[in-house]
């Protein structure tokens, strides 16, 4: 089985304690019996910045669960989102996870997948593009790293809290016009890439399973703030499910 999940937002101040992290760990422990691959499609952590010689506080149980999966032979691929964009080499080297900033096209068991977080789709605002460029600029990253974490970490989580109202209404806003923009993009992409079987996205905090006009299926993975949705692929079919324990 191959699993896909996104938008856990672990560490968010608006989540109660570490309940979400413990639920995610239980999920990872459950899938360890049959998982061969795991794809994390961004915003897994609500905020993360890797420093060269120190490790940010938190997520010990989650990272431990990932490490146990990786050590057992499960291939884990993490596609960064807009909240966990600053993943560099610590998790990659310590746990053995492939980190990808951007999209991934992959053939799995004869089926063609396109995967990405989805924050850069349907948003052409100049301000958004500028922020995306700023966050990925190496000079800006080094300048940010030079500031003591006692200021940058509260700043990062404060930015996340500031966006809480936006996140809370994302599912409602997806009904229009964002839904049309994403569907138009998915239709165009699938027509431009004949033979594409699945487009899998995160970011929008709503679970969607829709067949496009080309026959390609658009899967949006949902979130783990209010629900715990994920997708699994058994080599022939993909199912969008909700984890309950």
Structure description:
The structure is a single chain. By secondary structure, this protein is of the alpha/beta class. 38% of the residues lie in helices and 21% in strands. It has 8 helices and 11 strands. The protein has helices at residues 19-31, 60-71, 90-95, 126-136, 138-145, 149-162, 164-168, 170-192; strands at residues 2-5, 37-40, 75-79, 98-100, 104-108, 111-116, 198-201, 207-211, 217-221, 229-233, 238-242. Strands 4-3-2-1-10-11 form a 6-stranded mixed beta sheet, with helices on one face. The protein has a 5-stranded mixed beta sheet with strand order 5-6-7-9-8, with helices on one face. Helix 1 runs parallel beside helix 2 (60-71). The longest helix has 23 residues, at 170-192. The mean pLDDT is 87.
Taking pLDDT < 50 over at least 5 consecutive residues as the criterion, the unreliable ranges are none
Query: Helicity level, as a percent range?
Result: 25-40%
Mean pLDDT, nearest integer? 87
How would you sum up the global shape?
A: globular
Q: How many beta-strand runs?
A: 11
Strand content: 15-25%
Count of helical stretches: 8
Q: List SSEs in N-to-C order.
A: EHEHEHEEEHHHHHEEEEE
Structural class: alpha/beta
Strand and helix layout:
Layout: E1 2-5, H1 19-31, E2 37-40, H2 60-71, E3 75-79, H3 90-95, E4 98-100, E5 104-108, E6 111-116, H4 126-136, H5 138-145, H6 149-162, H7 164-168, H8 170-192, E7 198-201, E8 207-211, E9 217-221, E10 229-233, E11 238-242
Parallel strand pairs: 1-2, 2-3, 3-4, 6-7, 7-9
Antiparallel strand pairs: 1-10, 5-6, 8-9, 10-11
Helix pairs in contact: 1-2
């Amino acid at each position: 089985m191959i699993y896909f999940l996104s938008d856990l937002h672990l560490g968010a101040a608006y989540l109660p304690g570490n309940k979400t992290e413990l639920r995610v760990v239980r999920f990872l422990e459950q899938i360890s019996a049959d998982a061969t691959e795991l794809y994390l499609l961004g915003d897994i952590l609500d905020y993360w910045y890797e420093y060269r010689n120190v490790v940010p506080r938190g997520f010990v149980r989650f990272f431990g669960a990932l490490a146990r999966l990786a050590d057992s032979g499960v291939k884990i691929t993490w596609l960064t989102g807009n909240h966990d964009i600053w993943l560099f080499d610590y998790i990659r080297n310590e746990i053995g996870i492939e980190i990808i900033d951007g999209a991934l096209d992959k053939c799995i068991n004869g089926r063609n997948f396109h995967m990405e977080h989805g924050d850069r789709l349907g948003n052409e605002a100049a301000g958004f593009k500028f922020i995306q460029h700023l966050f990925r600029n190496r000079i800006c990253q080094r300048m940010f790293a030079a500031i003591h974490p006692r200021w940058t970490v509260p700043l990062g989580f404060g930015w996340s809290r500031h966006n809480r109202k936006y996140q809370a209404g994302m599912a409602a806003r997806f009904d229009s016009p964002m839904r049309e923009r994403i569907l138009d993009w998915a239709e165009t992409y699938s027509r431009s890439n004949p033979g594409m079987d699945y487009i899998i996205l995160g970011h929008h905090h709503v679970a969607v399973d829709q067949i496009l006009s080309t026959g390609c299926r658009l899967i949006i993975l949902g979130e783990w703030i209010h629900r715990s949705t994920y997708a699994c692929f058994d080599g022939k079919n993909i199912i969008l499910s909700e984890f309950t324990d």
